[in-house]
Every structure is written in C-alpha cells, then in structure tokens.
Design brief:
This protein is mainly β. It contains 1 helix and 19 strands.
Length: about 280
C-alpha cells in the first residue's frame, strides 16, 4: 500500500492510494478514501482490470470548482507505456473509469513514459509534476515488461506540464534531473512541495540504480519559482538510507492542525505500508 495523493476539502481529507502485489500482478487497485487525516474510510476504488492495464501507480485527486478530478497513472494496454488519464465526477465517490480521457501521454511529452502526477494551482495555472523517462537513442526492448522506467535503460526524472484548465496540458520539460552520480543518479522523482520562507521546498525520491527501483530514498530540493529545481546537498534526508525504514512517495497537505504528511514506508519484512504524520 502506498503512493499517496491527498486533497483537503474543508475538514475532510481525501486520499488516493495504490494497492500493489508482487509481480506479476503489480499495481492492482487505486482507492479513494475520506477521513480526518488519521482515520479513513474507502469510498471508491478501481482495479487494473477495469482500466485494462498491467499496473496502476500513483494517482492525484483534487476538486476544481464543482468538479472532482482523479488523475490516474497506469500502463496502457495498447502500447505498454505509462500514461496519465483524468476522470471527472460530481463527487469523489462517483468516478467512472469508462469516462477517462488523456491528460498526459508519453507521446505528448516526447518520452518513453509519464506517471506519478502531483498537481498544484499556482499563479493562474495548473502545474503537473510527473515521473518520466526521456527517449533514448535506442528504444528497442523498452516496453517489453510494461514498465520502461524499471528496465535500467532510461533514467526516471521529474518533468513538468502546465495547463489553464487542468484538462488540456502543455509539456514544459525536465524540472529535476537525476544526479551525475551518487544515491540519486538513476531516479529523481519530485513527489510534493511545501511553501518555504525563500521559495519552495520539495521532497523527491532518489535511487542509485535499478536494484533500488522499489526502495527509493527521500531527498530534498528547493525552488524559487516552482519550475526550476536544485537538490540540497547530502542526502538522502528523510527516512533510513536503505532497507527497513525507507521513505518514498511523500505527500503533504495543509490542514487546520498544520501540514500533514503521507508517505510509503518499508517494513522489516520488505512490505510497504502507508503512514501519516503531522508537522508541529
């Protein structure tokens, strides 16, 4: 369980998370739950079979005016590439997967894959940060497994798309690159941001290589404008450096009690659970 996306509506916190099983089943369900930040009740769910997909990954939920939106990242059965679709509904328990439409595809980004959306409305437009892989010179064999970002043939980095209405998106390009070497030389996936005194503080998942594909570690980055990012030195900064205690897919929302974090946490037996904490 993990890969959380959250949204606060008055006193209610809505959480979209992924249930995953070991291969070959992989990301099997996306669940929407409503709660107070600590206790949640599932109100909607969809399976990978309903999406006709090999796997579901991180999703994002939000309300825009009178419309609820769920941005779902999943493997397209047509070409085995990660993509992001949007579902709209009048209520957060009324999504219909049959009504989904493309939000951002690999072709739109000129990439091998796009997934794991995180959205923020800022200065009159929507920003969507995604995990993506730039097209390599030789793409042979990239999509045979249905997960190009776990082949070791392409890095998983953070890209940015923008939109005026949250439905029609324009690709901007790379926002946070993997390092040239070190613990985040293979993966640099921005997962959430917080307002800081001198700009923005971002949490990102990093890994040194393919062997850490499901056990990324969490680092910190900063930005003055939400568009251009630079990592803070050292790291990883949050959770254990590897093995049990690893933290990834950090999400943060503002509540009446202050910032509330959700994150995926590795247990001693290797399984992952979804945890929450409040910043006091």
């Amino acid at each position: 369980m993990g890969a959380p996306g959250a949204f606060v509506d008055d006193d209610d916190v809505y959480l979209a998370y992924r249930l995953r099983w070991p291969r070959p089943r992989r990301g099997a369900e996306v669940v929407v739950a409503r709660g107070d930040g600590e206790h949640f009740r599932p109100i909607w769910r969809a399976t990978r079979e309903q999406l006709r997909s090999a796997s579901i990954e991180r999703c994002a939920i939000l309300r825009s005016g009178g419309s609820w939106r769920l941005y779902v990242s999943y493997v397209d059965e047509a070409d085995a590439r990660w993509r992001i679709d949007v579902l709209e509904a009048r209520a957060p328990d009324a999504f219909d997967v049959r009504s989904r439409r493309p939000a951002l595809t690999a072709d739109m980004a000129g990439a091998v894959a796009v997934k794991d959306p995180w959205l923020r409305f800022h200065q009159g437009r929507w920003l969507m940060f995604v995990s993506y892989g730039a097209l390599p010179g030789d793409a042979a064999g990239l999509h045979a497994s249905g997960d190009a970002l776990s082949t070791g043939l392409v890095k998983s980095e953070t890209g940015l798309a923008t939109s005026e209405d949250g439905l029609r998106w324009t690709w901007v390009g790379k926002a946070l690159a993997a390092s040239d070497n070190g613990w985040d030389a293979f993966t640099a996936r921005l997962t959430t941001v917080l307002r800081a005194r001198d700009g923005w503080l971002g949490f990102y998942d990093g890994s040194a290589g393919l062997e850490e594909n499901y056990e990324e570690r969490c680092g910190l980055a900063r930005s003055a404008d939400l568009v251009r990012w630079e990592r803070l030195g050292g790291g990883p900064h949050v959770g254990a450096a590897g093995g049990p205690g690893t933290v990834r897919y950090v999400e943060c929302v503002q509540t009446r009690r202050g910032p509330r974090f959700f994150f995926e946490y590795t247990l001693p037996d290797g399984s992952h659970e979804l945890r929450t904490a409040v910043a006091l």
